[in-house]
Amino acid sequence: METNREDRVKELLRQTLPPVDAGAEPARDLWPQMLERLGTRPAAAPWFDWALLAGLVALAALFPASIPVFLYYL
To answer: Are 9 and 15 in contact (CB under 8 A)?
Structure first.
C-alpha cells in the first residue's frame, strides 16, 4: 500500500516537473547585476517601520513588564 502511494507521487512529480539538464547554464551572466546591486545603497526604512518602532517603545514605556517578552522574540 505504501509503495503504491510512493509510486503515485513519483509519477505525479515526473509529469509535473520538467527534467533538469545537468549541464544547463543560465541564459546570461548574473554576476554583473549582483555587483551592481551590492554597490547601491539600501533604501531608507519606510514610515511604517518607524511607526511600529514608536509603538513598541510606547508599549515598553507603559508596560515595563513586557520588555522581557519583546527581548525573547528578538
So the answer is: no
Give the single-character DSSP code of 22. T
**Residue 51 DSSP SS3:** helix
Give me 35's grid cell: 555587483
Q: Cα(7)–Cα(14) distance, rounded to whole angstroms?
A: 11
Mean pLDDT, the chain cut into blocks of 10 residues (74 residues total): 84 86 80 89 87 93 92 89
Contact status, residue 50 vs residue 60, Cβ threshold 8 Å: no
Question: Which DSSP state fits 18?
Answer: P
pTM greater than 0.85: no
Taking the C-alpha atoms of residue 7 and residue 10, their distance in angstroms, rounded to an integer, is 5
Q: How does DSSP classify residue 17? A: S
